[in-house]
Amino acid sequence: MKKVLIINGPNLNLLGIREKNIYGTISYNELLKIISKKASELGLDVVFFQSNHEGEIIDRIHRAPEENMDGIIINPGAYTHYSYAIHDAIKAVSLPTIEVHISNIHAREEFRQKSVIAPACIGQISGFGIKSYIIALYAIKEILNLETTE
């Protein structure tokens, strides 16, 4: 079974509370249950991590290979727009990584429209609400399956 690390950055622990018009009404714990259920159906083993601290996110990315993670799905939150350190950590571990966002960052304020994380990732999924995570699960599964058949 492929292991996928799902990282959520700052303020995502407040889902269901913060800016419901943008992020919806589902709580963070409900999101984890939804992701877990779909991952199980897809034959993926997911491990969750959430932090409001950049260094903790970087440390968690660094540990991913040691923990035999096969891929990463990351919602870097506001770090999306300025954390070259997270970008570099993703590049350093060389694991297939997908960036996800609940909202369509390209349709929001100008400062939110650029991701410095995306160039380190194999792709970005945004704008589908919490379904962005589900789409990412399908994508990472396909990518990991391709790697094992090549």
UniProtKB/TrEMBL annotation:
Coiled coil: none annotated. Keywords: Amino-acid biosynthesis, Aromatic amino acid biosynthesis, Lyase. The keyword Transport does not apply. The keyword Transport does not apply. The record marks 18 as: Transition state stabilizer. Pfam families: DHquinase_II (PF01220). InterPro entries: DHquinase_II, DHquinase_II_CS, DHquinase_II_sf. One of its GO terms (molecular function) is 3-dehydroquinate dehydratase activity. SUPFAM superfamilies: Type II 3-dehydroquinate dehydratase. Its EC number is 4.2.1.10. The active site is at residues 23, 101. Homododecamer. NCBIfam families: aroQ, PRK05395.1-2, PRK05395.1-3, PRK05395.1-4. Catalyzes a trans-dehydration via an enolate intermediate. Belongs to the type-II 3-dehydroquinase family. This is 3-dehydroquinate dehydratase. It comes from Caldicellulosiruptor morganii.
